[in-house]
Every structure is written in structure tokens, then in C-alpha cells.
Write a structure and sequence with these properties.
The complex is a heterodimer of chains A (540) and B (317). Chain A is built from 17 helices and 21 strands. With 540 residues, chain A is an alpha+beta fold. Chain A folds into three domains: 158 residues, Periplasmic binding protein-like II (D-Maltodextrin-Binding Protein, domain 2, 3-Layer(aba) Sandwich), CATH 3.40.190.10; 120 residues, Dipeptide-binding Protein, domain 1 (Alpha-Beta Complex), CATH 3.90.76; 231 residues, Dipeptide-binding Protein, domain 3 (Roll), CATH 3.10.105. In chain A, the strands form five sheets. In chain A, strands 1, 8, 9, 10, 11, 12, 13, 16, 17, 18 and 19 form an eleven-stranded mixed β-sheet that branches. In chain A, helix 12 links the parallel strand 16 and strand 17. In chain A, helix 10 packs antiparallel against helix 12, helix 14 packs antiparallel against helix 15 and helix 15 packs antiparallel against helix 16. About 2% of the residues of chain A have low confidence. By secondary structure, chain B is an all-alpha fold. Chain B has a domain of 186 residues: MetI-like (MetI-like fold). Classes of the chains: A alpha+beta (540), B mainly alpha (317). At the A-B interface, helix 1, strand 10, helix 7, helix 13 and helix 14 of A face helix 2, helix 7, helix 8, helix 11 and helix 12 of B.
């Protein structure tokens, strides 16, 4: 018995040494598995990070943000700026060996315009897409197959963003999916064992454990230099540290701020840090009598010590003034964040009619529209049950109490928060909420338009509308001069920053640690970490 | 016996219906909207949520939804809202690791717990008894997540002798027990620490109880060897409550050990359950509840049947 135990113990000592990384394999850590590998139905950012290496697009942004050919070897636009004609590479094939043709491109856009389609990729700007969706037409007139390797896409009106919108569409395999009813696509085989055209092929998806991928030898571009790529699911983030230093994995993008300094000192580990893709913000119900006065919203901005909120919310980050990622040209870098200045906040509140006459520490209304005189300033701040948001919310409560504003925090389940609480139209009691914006979507147009064009989806969250901003954002896609279009976005961001329907708080940094022998290209944001995997190599 | 089993099976039907109906009602009436979780907030604008609700059948009256869901459940076609695959497939894909760890944990807890309990019962309030009582209760009082993280820190990060996450080497293509062995140690240990106190305390007090019975004294008086009395006469009677306990714990373990699964990266049912609840994935939650409920019903029945084998005095009827 003793001998068996001893043997087992020695076994345990020896075995793990065998798991260190091999030269032809890179193990990437992530806390969750994708929800689906069908691009149209994949919801999570996680899925996008895997999909980027499994599928291809007609055109795609490179690491500098410039749009280059992917499945398309070239393209031209008609004189009226309406029709884009793409020439497909003749060497592109699907992972099962079938050549990529114009029919695949056509199929991709047909599917997303189908009346039974429930994915997230419908694009109304393509001519005929709306007609097909509403059942008036059988096909999308704006997408035409010219020959096997030529396809044209026509937009409803000249659109400067057409190419970058097309650069977000993953092309689907018509030969695999055309027999599947559109309503059943989401649950099809393609969601778990996809046939793509990307540099890596999915070999096996092990539920909640790992996705095993291998370099696709017939890839139409540069064949990935690391032959095996394993997406390893490690739900406990603190364990990512252990996995890296023990050599069980090669890179993690989820290092906790409290671990970051010490992992820098670990031998064999290199690190990267850049502004993250998640940001935190407050949105005000601007129709509420408490927050309808812009001076009150500005007072909130001055009253908050946002640096200390970064410290409790995750540790490393930067103050931010816009939802646009600072690495993009659309970001307005001239905007100066509101400084932490409780005196200015107090002065603004006095001006707006909020005065603490009875000296109980909470201001009361005086001549504030929509409120009886003497109403104490007491509002509910909703946030959702994620410490990234609920912990900084306590600082908001404290900071606002310091300037005489009473705040009760209400922590709400994620689903309820977004489906019911957040919108002023659904929830008349909604005053202000603390949440975040998750994705880095290039270009930022759709996100900005969602939030700030009067009547679009995000309007219900603030009930704020500004004619100039609506005009700027509505017209931006028609401005073909890049600098001029960026200027429109800059102006819109400046107005938002002045008017504060949204108060942007901070952008937590992405903290990345990896095996120092891994050679990475120059990367400036989280998305590009994953996009660049085919360009990684083992050096040193 | 057959009649008894038949009656028990028939009794399960109303219980089963009750469980499914209450589960369904609770999730359906809870605030929140399943389709909202299916998209990131920034694309909600572009998605026809009502069409999706229609496709998922969420616009129908609740009784219709309930009947349809149960029908689909029995034909194996109840499809997850979030992943659009049969919920039962999602559960079965995670069944092996869950079964493995539940089984390992119970077996280890019995192997360690029973001898400790018996020795404690034979010499109650001795040094051994006190030490074992204090240690199992200490184990119970320490939060599982803390023990788990400390184990990872010591054995994976500092000593580097055990892997920190997963159930097999990432390069392994099958479940080879030899390759898996180092991955099983820490999670099983944490689960066993959670189970030991009940096993030890139950068996100990039951054993003490039995040892003070008249028939045990008689057995001793007849001059039987101590060992024979303890094992043949006492233990066999004392084990009954432990069987009940195991029958109660096992299905609960199968329902998923969320903390252990999360910290050690085990692809089990617990993580699925938490995620499904977060996104209001009604079909998966319902299937999981039915799964656990059926397990409990059956393990109760098996426990009762086992009673008759262990204790001939008990007759089912």
C-alpha cells in the first residue's frame, strides 16, 4: 500500500512537467467559452475574438486600422459612390476544400435580410435589403454576382462608411448553409463546428474546457506560423497568473490589476498594457426634474473623484471623456475631463436652485422646474451586480453626499438592468444609472448614432436629444473626406461632453501577460491581440 | 417489492409535474427578458426582438408555453435560448466531469470518514475523537473558494507539482485516468472537506447510539469478539443514516459544485446552471431542474430499497 502511494506521489510530481508549451502550440487563456461560432448569432465579445481567426471578410482593417483586402484582392467604387465591385482572390478556399466564390458573398447578405433572420448583422444601408426583409422582394437587389470571382454591393445612398461596414461582415459558406432554413441557422452545426476561411480551422470544441484550432495550410493569406492554437477556458481569473508562470499557458489578457506588478517580475514573462475596450459611464434621465438642468449634471461631474473610482473598480485605467476608443482617429483628444472640484459642483448646484436651507446636509429645491420647493435631492442610482460597477457606485454615493446630494444605490441583476431598469421609457422612476459600454466596434459611428441620434435605440436611456448632434451624426456617413468626417465626430463628442447626457468615467486598462519567447506584432487594443494570432511566432 | 416500486414510480409523477410547473412559473415571472441577453446592448437597435420572441415562443400565454416546453423536453427537442441547441445536449456534454467528481468525492469522503467516525464512536471524547471533530468542523468552516485558492497557490504556483486548472492536459485527446490523476487531486480534496463533517458526525452519533443498545450489550455478553460485535452487529445498523445522507448528497453534487468547478476550471454542470440563470435561459434551467429533481427522486427510492438489503427488519410495502 505504501509503495502504491509513493508511486502515485512521484507520478504527481513528474506529470505536470510534461504540460509546458511546445514550439508549435500557443495556449491562449480566456475566462469563458464563446456562445457560438456562427458570426451572425454570436453575442459575446468572446466569440468575436475566436471568430476573427476562423472566418474571413471581403476587406478588413489591418493593425494600423487601414482597410485592406481579405477575401477580395481588389475593389473599385462607381463614380456615383453607390456601387462597390470586389474581385475575389482565386486561391481562397473553405476549410473543407471548397473554393470561395461570389455566391458565398451573395448568400451572406441574403441571409441577414431574410424575414426569418434573427441575427445581429442586418444592414439596412444595402439597396434592396429592407425590401427583402419586409417580404416585398425575394432577393437583395443590391448584392449582385457578376461572375464566380466578382461581386458588387450597392448602397442606398453614397456612404463613406460603406467599406468599413463591409469590413465587419464575416462571409458564410453557401455550400454548407444554403439548405438550412434561415430560422434554424443559429442552432446549426456551423455554430459549434464551423467551416470558415480563416487562418485557423476549428478541430474540436471541448465544452467549457478548450477550443482546439490548427493552422489552415491552404489559407489565402499568410499561413499562420504557429501550427496549433488552443483557446483554453480558465474561469477563475486569479488562476491565469498561475497558469502563465507554470507554463501551462502562454498568454492571458485578463490579468488582475493587483497581480500586474508582481507578474512583471516573474522570470520569462512579458507584459502589455493599453486602454481597455470596456468603459464605465453614468447616464442621466434628462427628463427627470432632478437632472433636466445641465448644471446639475455638470455638478455631478465635478463632484466625482473619478481617479479613486478607478482604484476600486479594477486598479489600472484612465479617465475618459467619450465612448470612442482613444486609439481611433474619431476620438476627440482635445476634450479635457471635468476635474474633481467639489466647490465648483456646489456653486453650480446653488445656481440651479439646489440649496441646503435647513442645514441637514441635503440640498432642497428652490424654484426647480417640476418639483415643489423644499423637495430634498434624493435619487436612486441603479447599477448592475458586477463589482466593476457596483463598487465605484459607492464612491459616487459618497462624493455626491459630500456636495449635498442624496443617493440610494440599487444593485440590479444584469438582465433586468438592461431590459427594464435602464430605459426612462420603460421605467418612469429611472433617475440615473451606472453601467458600461463593452465593445470596441470599428468604426465608432454605429455606437455614437445608437446613443445620440434622436429616436434611435439608446435614446430611451437618456431622453436627451440635440439637433446639432443628430445632424452631425446623421450626415457623417455622407462625408467622404476623412478629416472632415472625423471633425463631425469630434464636434458631436464635444457637445455631449458639455451637455452630459452621458458622463464617461473611466476606461480600465487591459493588462496582458505572455511568455517572453512569444513574438507579437505591435498591438494597441484588445481586439488586435486576437486578430494578430496568425502573425505570432516563437522566438528566443 | 415490485408493487412498492410501482407505487413509488407513480407517486413521482405528481411530484415531477409540481417541480416542473413551479420552476417554469418562477423563471417566467421573474423580472428580466431572455431575448435581451441574446445580444450585446449596442446591437439591440438592429435586431428584431419581437420576431425572436415569436420564434422562441415567448409571446404565447404561459400555459401554452409550459405545455409546449414539457412536450419538447420529453422528445429531446427543448432548445436553449442562448445556444439554440437542445438543452439536454448541453447538460450531457458536461455530465462526465460532474459525475466523476461527485463520485470521487463521495467515495473518498466515505473511505476517510467512516473509519474516523467508527474509531471516534468506540472511544467517544477521547483525544482522537476531539481532534477529528475539531478538524472536520474547521474544514467545514473554511469557505470552499478560499481553500481552493490556497491550494492552487501552494501546490500549483509555489511547489509546481499540481496543475491549476482543467481536468486533463490541454494536449490530451481522451480521458486517460493516468494523465488526469494530478488534475483530480485538488478539486476532490476541496469537495471531500465539504462532505466529511456530515459523514463523520452522522456516522459517529449513529454508531454511539447503536453501541449503547441492548442487543450490542447482549452480543458482548455472549462473549463475541469485539471486532465481530462492532462490524457485524453495530456497524450494519449504524450505517443506515449514512446511506440516507449519501442518497441526499449525491444528487445535489450532480446539480453542480459551482465554486469548485469555477476555480479549477472543471467543465461541469454547475457553471452551466449559473450562466443559464444569468441570461434567463429558461429551457436550460428547466432541464437542469428536472434533471436534479429526477435524480433526487430516484436516489430516494434507491435509498429505501437499500435499507431492506442492509436491514432485513425493514419491509417495503
Amino acid at each position: 500500500m505504501k509503495r502504491i502511494l509513493l508511486a502515485l506521489f512521484i507520478f504527481a510530481l513528474i506529470l505536470p512537467l510534461g504540460i509546458s508549451a511546445q514550439d508549435d502550440t500557443v495556449v491562449v487563456l480566456w475566462p469563458t467559452q464563446p456562445d457560438s461560432l456562427f458570426p451572425d448569432f454570436a453575442v459575446t465579445a468572446t466569440a468575436g475574438y475566436v471568430i476573427t481567426n476562423v472566418y474571413s471578410r471581403l476587406v478588413a482593417p489591418d493593425l494600423t486600422g487601414a482597410i485592406v483586402g481579405d477575401l477580395a484582392s481588389g475593389w473599385e467604387v462607381s463614380a456615383d459612390q453607390l456601387t462597390w465591385t470586389f474581385t475575389l482572390r482565386d486561391n481562397a478556399t473553405w476549410h473543407d476544400g471548397t473554393p470561395v466564390t461570389a455566391a458565398d458573398v451573395k448568400f451572406t447578405f441574403e441571409v441577414s435580410s431574410d424575414p426569418a433572420y434573427t441575427g445581429g448583422s442586418f444592414e439596412a444601408a444595402i439597396a434592396g435589403a429592407v425590401a427583402k426583409q419586409s417580404g416585398e422582394a425575394d432577393e437583395v437587389s443590391g448584392v449582385q454576382v457578376i461572375d464566380d470571382h466578382t461581386v458588387s454591393i450597392t448602397t442606398t445612398e453614397p456612404n463613406a462608411l460603406a467599406l468599413s461596414t463591409i469590413a465587419q461582415r464575416w462571409i458564410l459558406p453557401a455550400h454548407v448553409l444554403s439548405d438550412v432554413p434561415v430560422a434554424d441557422l443559429a442552432g446549426s452545426e456551423q455554430a459549434t463546428g464551423p467551416i470558415g476561411t480563416g487562418p485557423y480551422r476549428v478541430v474540436e470544441w471541448r465544452t467549457d474546457e478548450a477550443i482546439i484550432l490548427e493552422a489552415f495550410a491552404d489559407y489565402h493569406g499568410h499561413v499562420a506560423s504557429i501550427a496549433n492554437y488552443i483557446w483554453k477556458v480558465v474561469p477563475e481569473i486569479s488562476t491565469h497568473y498561475t497558469e502563465l508562470v507554470t507554463g501551462a499557458a502562454d498568454i492571458s489578457t485578463s490579468i488582475r490589476a493587483e497581480d500586474f506588478e508582481s507578474i512583471k517580475d516573474e522570470p520569462g514573462i512579458a507584459t502589455l498594457q493599453f486602454p481597455g475596450v470596456n468603459l464605465t459611464n453614468i447616464n442621466f434621465n434628462t427628463a427627470s426634474p432632478y437632472f433636466s438642468d445641465v448644471r446639475v449634471r455638470q455638478a455631478v461631474a465635478y463632484a466625482l473623484n473619478r481617479e479613486s473610482m478607478i482604484a476600486v473598480g479594477g486598479g489600472a485605467g484612465t479617465l475618459t471623456v467619450s465612448q470612442v476608443h482613444p486609439s481611433m482617429p474619431e476620438f476627440n483628444s482635445d476634450i479635457v475631463p471635468y476635474p474633481y472640484d467639489p466647490d465648483t459642483a456646489a456653486a453650480l448646484l446653488e445656481e440651479a436652485g439646489w440649496i441646503d436651507a435647513d442645514g441637514d446636509g441635503v440640498r432642497e429645491s428652490h424654484m426647480v422646474e417640476g418639483l415643489d420647493d423644499g423637495t430634498p435631492f434624493s435619487v436612486e442610482l441603479g447599477t448592475w451586480s458586477n463589482p466593476l460597477y457596483s463598487l465605484p457606485a459607492q464612491i459616487i454615493q459618497q462624493n455626491l453626499a459630500d456636495v449635498g446630494l442624496g443617493v440610494e444605490i440599487s444593485v440590479i441583476d444584469f438582465n433586468v438592468y438592461f431590459s427594464e431598469y435602464l430605459t426612462a421609457t420603460n421605467n418612469p422612476e429611472f433617475q440615473f444609472g451606472m453601467s458600461g459600454w463593452f465593445n470596441l466596434v470599428l468604426p465608432p459611428h454605429s455606437d455614437l448614432a445608437f446613443n445620440f441620434v434622436e429616436g434611435s435605440g439608446g435614446y430611451a436611456r437618456t431622453l436627451w436629444a440635440n439637433d446639432r448632434v443628430t445632424e452631425l451624426l446623421t450626415n457623417a456617413p455622407t462625408i467622404f473626406d476623412d478629416a472632415e468626417r472625423y471633425a463631425a465626430y469630434h464636434e458631436a463628442q464635444a457637445i455631449v461632453h458639455e451637455e452630459l447626457p452621458y458622463l464617461y468615467l473611466s476606461r480600465l486598462d487591459n493588462l496582458i501577460a505572455y511568455d517572453e519567447n512569444l513574438v507579437l506584432p505591435d498591438i494597441g487594443n484588445l481586439r488586435d491581440v486576437f486578430t494578430s494570432i496568425p502573425q505570432w511566432s516563437w522566438g528566443g | 417489492m415490485q408493487q412498492y416500486l410501482l407505487r413509488r414510480l407513480l407517486q413521482m409523477v405528481p411530484v415531477f409535474i409540481g417541480i416542473t410547473f413551479i420552476t417554469f412559473l418562477m423563471i417566467s415571472l421573474a423580472p428580466g427578458d431572455p431575448v435581451v441577453s441574446l445580444f450585446p446592448p449596442e446591437v439591440l437597435d438592429r435586431v428584431d426582438l419581437d420576431l425572436l420572441r415569436d420564434q422562441l415562443g415567448l409571446n404565447d400565454p404561459l400555459p401554452t408555453q409550459y405545455v409546449r416546453m414539457m412536450g419538447r423536453f420529453f422528445s429531446g427537442e427543448l432548445v436553449s435560448f442562448a445556444e439554440r441547441r437542445p438543452a439536454i445536449d448541453l447538460i450531457f456534454a458536461r455530465l462526465f466531469p460532474t459525475l466523476l467528481f461527485s463520485g470521487l468525492a463521495i467515495v473518498c469522503a466515505l473511505i476517510i470518514g467512516l473509519p474516523v467516525a467508527i474509531i471516534s464512536a468506540l472511544k467517544p471524547y477521547s483525544l482522537f475523537d476531539n481532534v477529528s471533530t475539531v478538524s472536520v468542523l474547521t474544514g467545514l468552516s473554511l469557505p470552499q473558494f478560499w481553500i481552493a485558492l490556497i491550494l492552487v497557490l501552494i501546490f500549483s504556483e509555489r511547489l509546481r507539482i499540481l496543475p491549476s486548472s482543467g481536468i486533463r492536459p490541454i494536449s490530451a485527446s481522451s480521458y486517460d485516468p493516468i494523465e488526469m490523476f494530478p488534475y483530480l487531486i485538488m478539486p476532490t480534496f476541496v469537495l471531500v472537506i465539504g462532505l466529511l463533517p456530515s459523514v463523520v458526525r452522522y456516522s459517529r452519533s449513529s454508531m454511539i447510539d447503536v453501541l449503547s443498545q441492548d442487543y450490542v450489550r447482549t452480543a458482548f455478553a455472549k462473549g463475541l469478539a469485539n471486532r465481530t460485535v462492532w462490524v457485524r452487529h453495530a456497524l450494519r445498523n449504524a450505517i443506515l443514516p449514512v446511506v440516507t445522507l449519501v442518497g441526499a448528497i449525491f444528487p445535489l453534487l450532480l446539480g453542480g459544485a459551482v465554486v469548485v468547478e469555477t476555480i479549477f476550471g472543471i467543465p461541469g454542470i454547475g457553471r452551466l446552471a449559473v450562466r443559464s440563470a444569468q441570461v434567463r435561459d429558461l429551457p436550460v434551467i428547466l432541464s437542469l431542474n428536472i434533471f436534479t429533481a429526477v435524480l433526487i427522486l430516484f436516489s430516494n427510492m434507491i435509498t429505501d430499497v437499500l435499507y431492506t438489503t442492509l436491514d432485513p427488519r425493514i419491509r417495503l410495502g
